Amino acid sequence: MHVRFFTTLLLSATVAAGSVQAQQASDTIAPEKATGTTTAARVETKNYMVAAANPLAAEAGRKVIADGGNAIDAMVAVQTVLGLVEPQSSGLGGGSFLVYYDAAANKITTFDGRETAPMEATPKLFLDETGQPLKFLDAVIGGRSVGTPGTVRLLSDVHKKYGTKPWADLFNPAEKLAKDGFQVSPRLASLIASDGDRLKKYEGARGYFYDADGAPLKAGAVLKNPAYAQTLNTIATKGADAFYTGPIAEAIVKTVREASGNPGVLSLPDLANYRTKEREPVCAKYRALDICGMGPPSSGAVAVGQILGVVENFDIKALGPDNVESWRLIGDAQRLAFADRERYLADPDFMPLPIKGLLTKDYLATRASLLDGDKALAPDAVKAGEPTWDHALLFGRGPALEMPSTSHFVIVDKQGNVLSMTTTIEGGFGSRLMTNGFLLNNELTDFSFKTHDGSLPVANRVEPGKRPRSSMAPTIVMKDGKPLMAIGSPGGSQIIGYVAQALIAYIDWGMPVEKIVAQPHLINRFGTYDIEAGTDAEKFAEPLKAMGYEVKPGEMNSGLHAIEITASGLVGSADRAVKVSLWVSEVSRRDADRYSLLIPVLVTGIQAERVCATKRVFSAQGLELTGFL
């Protein structure tokens, strides 16, 4: 079911809202569950735009910019509110990647706030006493999976470099919401209920997400978080160091190391020594554009660049989105990218990586030659290639667990600064450990559980101080040295396919922003073609089977959203609800309350104070739907 909403401001501005090889278990598990469907809509504005995963978070960012702040200032406000209202996805206890275009310097840079493995961690962290990999959930729940959080340090470091508003002021929206309370969204209520006994295992989360009778919180319940408010106040007044040392750090370490049944090894020195890393962006040429994103330890930019680089060798524009041949090429390009990802990509501070070699035209043309037939690549043909590089190290295949509960937001401010940020605590509700009002990540399960593939070491194995590989793909598209689009998505290892597919639709098929984020998804990482059930993607099921693919219809929990920068202004759209908090009964990929856009709108020459000015209650299928328009 698709639900579409419209509202008109002063009759002159209309705003529509609607919306390979063996891999480890969670690569094939949908990150969080889908809870509703909406259609995407096109939103235009002149000055600035914020797209975030909840209307309250987006409003916090909008107000910061309206009050004279910039995109980096807004980032702090957005993230701290997200950590309160969608705690299952991101927060102070997690990590982040930021891709940032600095308009004054006309330069893109990236910041790595990824969690790190504790110094007491060993490559055998996720092996049992017989040397076999632990079952996924046995590894996740508890302290073993918790890495050193990086988000707070990233916010602080980037704000010190680029921010304009006082640090302390940026925490006010989230602190006030935490004290006064916010309504539990239908999405959050559904996810609490579906997590069952896992979320109840530890007292911190049990006492927060369940009522006195042990029942999960219902949608519409007012939830207050005084502990989170106090944590925010401490960070606001004393700085990020107050998170990484002192009582907050001590509480984090105590929670991790005393987690019953599955304690971890995080220590106070791990927290005190955490550092954000500024890294060069990875930019891949595609057609006449530069697709810039986050390099390792994220595999996102490299894998997206490889998919596009392989596809560039074919006339996919002429084929179009309705030709199954397009999806054969895109699908097998994804499989080849994932084969390289598993062998070569990891934390670049721990080993040399062939990043340039993986993205050269010659290498990708060689990979593309594997697709010259008209059938699916045979499994034994999908293996890592041999890119040119300066080192002779050979790694084994290193599949890694990915079941992230992730959030993403994009911001363009009045000065033309652009950011794309993906932020996460990994699995839904992370480790299920909660302290000081926020959940702790289970990010260490993004490492490969295996230490070796035969006699070869695995690049993404656990090592002390190392950052696990990620699939997050915050992206800024550049044209002639200027930003053209900011885009990204949550979605685990499917993020790579979501972003690549959207870029192909935009660049090759000429689709507008609202169409590229609303496309039905077809993803192929490991040989099985995942197609989005209940959408037009299902028409490709039989043709893909005839090409030799195994096809698996199912939920696809993407959350693409994008802001396009044009000569006349900004155009934004989001995969789920553009600026609506919505619940519907049908289970599909577009979780309607997950994505929100709050923007200034030019109305007969006067900038509207806010788009989300009216709260309305809708009904459909006998359910109450709550929308912010």
UniProtKB/TrEMBL annotation:
Coiled coil: none annotated. Residues 1-22 form the signal peptide. The active site is at T406 (nucleophile). L-glutamate binds at R114, D446, S470, S471, G492. Cleaved by autocatalysis into a large and a small subunit. Its EC number is 2.3.2.2, 3.4.19.13. One of its GO terms (biological process) is glutathione catabolic process. Keywords: Acyltransferase, Glutathione biosynthesis, Hydrolase, Signal, Transferase, Zymogen. Pathway: Sulfur metabolism; glutathione metabolism. SUPFAM superfamilies: N-terminal nucleophile aminohydrolases (Ntn hydrolases). GO terms for molecular function: glutathione hydrolase activity; leukotriene C4 gamma-glutamyl transferase activity. It catalyses: an N-terminal (5-L-glutamyl)-[peptide] + an alpha-amino acid = 5-L-glutamyl amino acid + an N-terminal L-alpha-aminoacyl-[peptide]; an S-substituted glutathione + H2O = an S-substituted L-cysteinylglycine + L-glutamate; glutathione + H2O = L-cysteinylglycine + L-glutamate. InterPro entries: GGT_bact (IPR051792), GGT_lsub (IPR043138), GGT_peptidase (IPR000101), GGT_ssub_C (IPR043137), Ntn_hydrolases_N (IPR029055). This enzyme consists of two polypeptide chains, which are synthesized in precursor form from a single polypeptide. Belongs to the gamma-glutamyltransferase family. This is Glutathione hydrolase proenzyme. The gene is ggt_1.
